[in-house]
Design goal:
Blueprint: E1 48-49, H1 54-62, H2 72-80, E2 83-87, E3 92-94, E4 101-108, E5 111-116, E6 122-128, E7 133-137, E8 148-151, E9 155-160, H3 162-171, H4 173-199, H5 202-217, E10 219-220, E11 227-229, H6 235-242, H7 246-258, E12 262-264, E13 269-271, H8 274-282
């Protein structure tokens, strides 16, 4: 899904409370946060009711690709079928294997979507931003959630149940057609990712993932023209997204930093030289110590 690039609420920028397993330098990043900072959870085990302002809800729904072209009254009718909920950083919106009974439209915050591999390792498959859809429904062919969605920051999402979503599809056939297109796109991407992961080096896979995240989540960094990723992304997360190991990813990231292609800190990563990172992704340039 194409993310919403708009002014977000303060929840978008809450990065505290997330534990990292990498050992990067804690240099002064754009938003340096002490590691001892405590977080006060909204809810420790489940979603909490949340009064998301109507203008925010409408702005978010207006940027969801599935609802493109719908009028304001039509979006208001869809909004009336949704419930606004919030989660603290570290809480799960849903877990793999649970009954697939809701779809969510992310309104504020960041969400990590992951699944477990056969060896029990967590594999991160996507990072979501406001405007993205997450979850699935039995009506879409998934009796249970195939993945776990976890809030990386304080998160607000609009929830819709199966009956309400079916009513939306019945009322708006163009939305139903986009759902089919989205399902086909996911299958195509999954096959493409599988092919790339089997043929590319770890360096190429890491570079490709960083470029994708920069396109989706990046903000221009003042001063050097770099692209800033202000997300609490651990080496284990990157390893899951690249079908690699945290150790291999750490070596690649360290070398990319030494080559001044990227920079990173405890809760941020910056792409400093995008053309060279593109070359690494394409295999045209290798880090000084290739992996």
């Amino acid at each position: 899904m194409t993310p919403l690039h708009a002014n977000h609420t303060h929840a978008d920028h809450a990065h505290d409370g997330y534990q990292h397993d990498d050992h990067e330098h804690d240099g002064s990043g754009p938003t340096s946060v002490p590691s001892t900072r405590r977080r006060i959870p909204l809810q420790t085990t489940c979603a909490a009711p949340h009064q998301c302002p109507a203008p925010v809800r409408m702005r978010v729904l207006g940027h969801v690709p599935l609802f493109a072209g719908l009028s304001v009254p039509e979006l208001e009718a869809i909004d009336d079928r949704m419930v606004s909920l919030s989660w603290a950083a570290g809480d799960a919106l849903f877990t793999a294997g649970a009954p697939a009974d809701h779809l969510y439209v992310l309104a504020a915050g960041r969400v990590k979507v992951s699944r477990s591999t056969a060896s029990g390792r967590e594999s991160v498959v996507d990072l979501l931003t406001p405007g993205d859809l997450v979850g699935t429904l039995t009506a879409l062919g998934d009796p249970t959630y195939p993945e776990t969605a976890e809030a990386l920051t304080t998160t607000c999402a609009l929830q819709i149940d199966p009956a309400a979503f079916r009513a939306v599809l019945t009322t708006h056939p163009q939305v139903a057609l986009r759902v089919l297109d989205d399902l086909a796109s996911r299958l195509t991407r999954a096959r493409s990712d599988l092919g790339h992961h089997s043929a590319d080096t770890v360096s190429q896979r890491v570079a490709t993932t960083l470029l994708r995240l920069a396109d989706k989540l990046g903000q221009e960094r003042a001063g050097d023209g770099g692209t800033l990723l202000q997300i609490p992304l651990s080496r284990a997360d990157l390893a899951g997204m690249t079908s690699s190991t945290p150790e291999s990813v750490s070596r690649v990231m360290s070398q990319l930093r030494k080559d001044r292609i990227i920079d990173s800190g405890r809760r941020w990563t910056a792409v400093l030289d995008r053309p060279r990172l593109v070359d690494v992704a394409a295999g045209a340039e290798r880090p000084t110590s290739p992996v």
